[in-house]
Design goal:
Blueprint: H1 9-25, E1 32-37, H2 41-56, E2 60-61, E3 70-75, H3 80-99, E4 104-109, H4 115-124, E5 130-131, H5 140-150, E6 160-161, E7 183-187, E8 189-190, H6 201-205, E9 209-210, H7 213-225, E10 230-234, H8 251-259, E11 266-270, H9 279-287, E12 294-296, H10 304-309, H11 316-329, E13 334-341, H12 348-361, E14 365-370, H13 388-411, E15 417-425, E16 433-437, E17 442-445, E18 455-463, E19 468-472
Parallel strand pairs: 1-2, 1-3, 3-4, 4-5, 5-6, 7-10, 10-11, 12-13, 13-14, 17-19
Antiparallel strand pairs: 8-9, 15-16, 15-18, 16-17, 18-19
Helix pairs in contact: 1-5, 8-9, 9-11, 12-13
The structure holds S-adenosyl-L-homocysteine, iron/sulfur cluster and FE3-S4 cluster.
Length: 473
C-alpha cells in the first residue's frame, strides 16, 4: 500500500533558505527567468509554483528568451507530438547558450520522469543544466543551488540530472506566482491510479494523493478574498478525491463545502472519470450556488470492446446513463469530452460506434487525439495493424462531426441573454474582451478593459464552431 508523504514545515523552510543562497549568488545584477509550459492544467499550475520559487530565489520573470538568464521548461509526456516539440525547442536553446554562456537551462515535468528520456537528455541535449521530475518541484531551490555550484566543474559533474521516485509527495505552503487576476487553478489532488492502458500519466505522476480538505478550503477562501472569480479545481480524476485521507470525505462533499464559501465566483473542475461520476455529484452541482453546470467527461471510445482494452471500466450504456442522469439534474449542462482515435486493434466498426455515440450525446466541444504509443504502457505492446493514413481519415471524420455539433450548439445561443464573466482583454478590435459563460463557452465582446473580472449579462448576437459573440446589455 502506498504511503502518502507530506512535506514538513521544516523541510519547506529549508527550501526557503536555499532560496536565500541562490539570491546571494545572483545579487550582483538583475537576473531574469522564463518558464515555458507544455501539457495540461496540472502543469500550468505547477509552473505557477516554479515561478513562485524563482521569484523567491531573486529572479525577475520575463517573456523574452533573449533576456533570460534561466529558462525552465515544464514538459508533458502524454503524446509523442508533445515530446517532440519539447525536444525541438530545448535543442534550439543551444543558440541562446552560444550567445549567453551563463544561461541556465532547466527541464522539469512529466517527460523527465521517464528513465529513457533522462538518458536521452543526458547524452544528446548537453545544453540542459538541470533535469528534475514533478515530484521534486517542492525542492526546486535546493536543486537550482546545486546546479549553480556544479557549473564550471568538468564533464558529467557539471550538470544535475535528478528524478525522485514517482510515488510523490503532498506539499503545502509553496510559493506561487499566478499569472491571471480573474482565473485561478486550485489543485486538489495529484497522480492517478486508473492505469488506462494507453496512458503514461500514472507512471510519471505517481499514485493518487489528495490534499486535506482544510488545506483546499483555506486556499479557496484566500483566492476569493483576493478577488479571484473563476476557480478551477484540478486533478487527473477529481471524482476519486479523498481516497487515502484520514477524513471520511469525497469529491461531492468537498464541492459542497467549497460552494458554502460566500462570494461572487464560479467553481469549475477538471477532470471527471466517467466510472466515478455519481448522481451525488450531479445533485451537489445542481444545488450549488457557484458550481458551473459543465462536466468534462472523457469518453475515449464509443466501442465496448475498445473501452475494455483501454481499461476504462465503463461501457457505452453505462456512459449514456451517466449523461442522462447529469442532464436530468442540470438541463442546461454543458458537456465536453476527449476521444482517442486509432487505439491498437480498433476497427472501422469500433470507430463507427464512437461516431454514433458522439452524435447521440451531442457534445458542446470535443478534444480529439490520434493514439500515440507510450513506452511502458500495456497498449504500446498491443498489435496495431491500422495505418496512420487510415487513422487520419477516421480522425478527420470525427473532427468534422464534432465541429458540426459544436456549431449547432453555439448557434442555439444566438438571441439569448447569458451571464458571463469577463476574463481578459485581448486588445483585438472590435471584440476586445474575452469572457466565459458559466458553462465555460467562450464569448467575445466589445467593451472597456476595466470590465475584466466582472459578471455581466450579454446578448449573444453571433456564433462560430469555436466561440460566441455578444453585446453587453
Ligand atoms: N486524467 C484525464 C486525462 C489526462 S490526459 C482523464 O482521464 O480524463 C488527456 C487526454 O489525453 C485523455 O483524456 C486522452 O484522451 C488523451 N490521451 C492520453 N494518452 C494518450 C495517448 N497515449 N494517445 C493519444 N491520446 C492520449
Ligand atoms: Fe490517464 Fe486514465 Fe489516469 Fe486519465 S484516468 S490520467 S487517461 S490513466
Ligand atoms: Fe502531460 Fe503530465 Fe499533464 S503527461 S497531460 S503534463 S499530467
Amino acid at each position: 500500500m502506498y504511503q502518502r508523504r507530506e512535506i514538513t514545515t521544516q523541510e519547506r523552510l529549508q527550501q526557503e533558505q536555499y532560496c536565500q543562497r541562490v539570491r546571494a549568488l545572483i545579487a550582483h545584477r538583475p537576473h531574469y527567468a522564463l518558464v515555458d509550459t507544455y501539457g495540461c492544467q496540472q502543469n500550468e499550475s505547477d509552473s505557477e509554483i516554479l515561478r513562485g520559487w524563482l521569484v523567491q530565489c531573486g529572479y525577475e520573470l520575463t517573456g523574452s528568451e533573449e533576456k533570460a538568464d534561466l529558462i525552465a521548461v515544464n514538459t508533458c509526456a502524454v503524446r509523442e507530438h508533445a515530446e517532440k516539440r519539447v525536444l525541438g525547442n530545448v535543442g534550439a536553446l543551444a543558440h541562446n547558450k552560444a550567445k549567453n554562456p551563463e544561461l541556465l537551462v532547466c527541464v522539469g515535468g512529466c517527460m523527465t520522469q521517464q528513465e529513457t528520456m533522462r538518458e536521452r537528455i543526458r547524452r544528446s541535449y548537453r545544453v540542459v543544466d538541470l533535469v528534475f521530475g514533478p515530484h521534486e518541484l517542492w525542492q526546486f531551490p535546493q536543486l537550482l543551488l546545486e546546479t549553480m555550484e556544479r557549473r564550471g566543474r568538468r564533464g558529467a559533474k557539471s550538470r544535475l540530472i535528478a528524478a525522485a521516485p514517482s510515488e510523490g509527495v503532498v506539499a503545502e505552503g509553496l510559493p506561487r506566482q499566478r499569472d491571471n487576476q480573474v482565473k485561478a487553478w486550485l489543485s486538489i489532488m495529484n497522480g492517478c491510479d486508473n492505469f488506462c492502458s494507453y496512458c503514461i500519466v500514472p507512471y510519471v505522476r505517481g499514485r493518487e494523493r489528495s490534499r486535506r480538505p482544510e488545506d483546499v478550503l483555506a486556499e479557496a477562501r484566500e483566492l476569493i478574498r483576493l478577488g479571484y472569480k473563476d476557480i478551477t479545481l484540478l486533478g487527473q480524476n477529481v471524482n476519486s478525491y479523498g481516497k487515502g485521507l484520514e477524513e471520511d470525505t469525497d469529491f461531492p462533499a468537498l464541492l459542497a463545502a467549497l460552494d458554502a464559501i460566500p462570494g461572487d465566483y464560479v467553481l469549475r473542475f477538471m477532470t471527471s472519470h466517467p466510472k466515478d461520476a455519481t448522481e451525488k455529484l450531479f445533485r451537489v452541482m445542481a444545488e450549488s450556488e457557484h458550481c458551473a453546470h459543465h462536466i468534462h467527461l472523457p469518453l475515449q471510445s464509443g466501442s465496448d470492446r475498445i473501452l475494455r482494452q483501454m481499461n476504462r471500466r465503463y461501457d457505452r450504456a453505462g456512459y449514456l446513463e451517466k449523461v442522462a442522469a447529469a442532464r436530468a439534474a442540470m438541463p442546461d449542462l454543458v458537456l465536453t469530452t476527449d476521444i482517442i482515435v486509432g487505439f491498437p486493434g480498433e476497427t472501422e466498426a469500433d470507430f463507427a460506434d464512437t461516431l454514433s455515440l458522439v452524435e447521440q450525446v451531442g457534445y458542446d466541444a470535443m478534444f480529439t487525439f490520434i493514439y500515440s504509443p507510450r513506452t511502458g504502457t500495456p497498449a504500446a505492446a498491443m498489435p496495431d495493424p491500422v495505418s496512420r493514413a487510415e487513422k487520419q481519415v477516421w480522425f478527420d471524420r470525427l473532427v468534422q462531426t464534432a465541429n458540426r455539433i459544436s456549431a449547432e450548439k453555439h448557434a442555439a445561443y444566438v438571441g439569448r441573454t447569458v451571464r458571463v464573466l469577463v476574463d481578459g482583454a485581448t486588445g483585438q478590435e472590435p471584440y476586445d474582451l474575452s469572457s466565459r459563460t458559466k458553462g465555460g463557452r467562450l464569448v467575445h465582446l466589445a467593451g472597456d478593459p476595466a470590465l475584466v473580472g466582472q459578471f455581466l449579462d450579454v446578448k449573444i448576437t453571433d456564433s462560430t464552431t469555436w466561440a460566441l459573440y455578444g453585446q453587453i446589455e
